[in-house]
Amino acid sequence: MAVDWEQRVDFGRLRTDRLARVRAVLERSELGALLLFDQNNIRYVTSSHIGEWARDKSARCVIVPRTGDPVLWDFGSAAKHHQLFAPWLPESSWRAGVTSMRGAMPRQTGVPDLLAGHIYDVLDDHGLTDRPLGVDLTDMETLASLGRRGIATGDAQPVMLEARKIKTADEIALLDQAAGIVDAVYEQIYRTLRPGIKESTIVADAQRLLFELGSEQVEAINAVSGDRCNPHPHVFSDRLLRPGDQAFFDIIHSFMGYRTCYYRTFSVGGTNQGQIDAYKQCREWLDDAISLVRPGMTTDRIAAVWPTAEELGFPNEEACFGLQFGHGLGVGLYESPMISRLHSFDDPIVIEEGMVFALETYCATKDGRGAARIEEEVVVTADGPELLTRFPGEELLVCGKTYVRGADLVAATEHAEV
Question: Please, which pLDDT band fits residue 255 given cuts at 50, 70 and 90?
């Protein structure tokens, strides 16, 4: 993604642009500063990353004041590493610190109050102790420790989601590369999917190729086949694929912090008219939604082209939430805009140039034994939608069909003799 002889992704510009966006939105809010524990938010404002290990531990956090540099309290020696190798912020921004680790370091250890004291000192240095501190997510003990220092708290996530809503050219390039990696994985799946292979084996092979091609995190790979297709279980299993199965996959991974959400459906060794009909309907619902993607469109009009819950055999929209769905895509899997029949009619969002989101649809076969699931990632341009996902998805592809009938060979031999 970066060489000295071509201008590709400008990581310096990426870092500067992201922090500037956050500061602009923070300035318009009532908050004095942001305290961020969400790893996606931390990466967005600091361009720091210590791997998937940190994903669910709340072991690091950053404070972003209205003016001045962010301050990140990181896990042990990671702070020293940043001081040596992350010169885009001053050394004083990279500090060792200990959080409550989701309550594993409770109040009696003194750790939560120690961190709250560090946070108070930064707020005091910037004259912000009298303004609410926005927090995106944390544990109750950390909130209690902030309260004991007299720090009022608010919600940081609306600020971060607003800042992350419109993607820069560098972000779109990274999202495109992330999708390109999945293109290659689907080529592998297409060539290896056959009767006698397990869903879990496909997942293992896909994970290996993802990492070989540059993925830094594989969040999930759904592999769903045969009678597991309906209802959609959203997880892979050890099921052995059989001839005539329908199978769909979703590959969610991260490249340089930017994610994919990318479904494709195949038939294994053969297909039938019911599977083809379900796929065709699924594709029509998806294409109808994509055709509406342009600046100025609203999300309620996109949601309106999808079938109701009752038409899909569910009692209400909550029960089938996510089957016909749209969501923003960036450093997080779910960003603005979110699109569904559950909420978009009451809370429509205007589509803007520079948004990137995924649209996904689902259709079960009439006999209930299979289902199609397709997803495309879309960039909103001034001229309309541009797809990042390029592995063929217009028609149902059949994998593992290598059989040759004896009758065909005999017929071919007789024809040659004549």
Answer: very high
Per-residue tokens: 47: 């361009």
pLDDT, tens digit, 9 for 90 and up, residues 117-147? 999 999 999 999 999 999 999 999 999 999 9
Whether domain 11-164 has CATH 3.40.350.10: yes
Listed in order, strand segments (DSSP E) in 75-158 are 94-96, 133-135, 153-155
CB 348 within 8 A of CB 299: yes
Shared fold status for 11-164 and 169-399: no
pTM of the prediction?
Answer: 0.95
In angstroms, what CA-CA distances link 134 with 36, 165, 213, 333, 369? 8, 18, 37, 22, 48
In the β-sheet with 356-364, what is the strand arrangement from edge to edge? Answer: 335-339, 325-328, 356-364, 371-381, 384-387
Domain boundaries of the chain, sorted by first residue? 11-164, 169-399
Structure-block tokens of residue 26: 């923070």
Q: Which fold has domain 169-399?
A: Creatine Amidinohydrolase (3.90.230)
| Angle (deg, nearest 10), helices 11-28 and 169-192 | 120
> Beta 397-399 vs 262-268: how paired, if at all?
parallel
- Beta pairing partners, 298: 350
Q: Smallest Cα–Cα separation from 128: which of 38, 202, 186, 66?
A: 66
Distance between CA 127 and CA 133 in Å, rounded?
12
Angle ∠(116,123,47) on CA atoms, nearest 5: 85
385 CB-side CA count, 13 A: 19
Span 269-319, pLDDT tens digits: 999 999 999 999 999 999 999 999 999 999 999 999 999 999 999 999 999
Between CA 161 and CA 336 the distance in angstroms is 7
Cα–Cα distance between 361 and 374 in angstroms, integer?
6
User: How far is the C-alpha of 207 from the C-alpha of 205, rounded, in Å?
Assistant: 6
- 284 CB contacts (<8 Å, ≥6 apart)? none
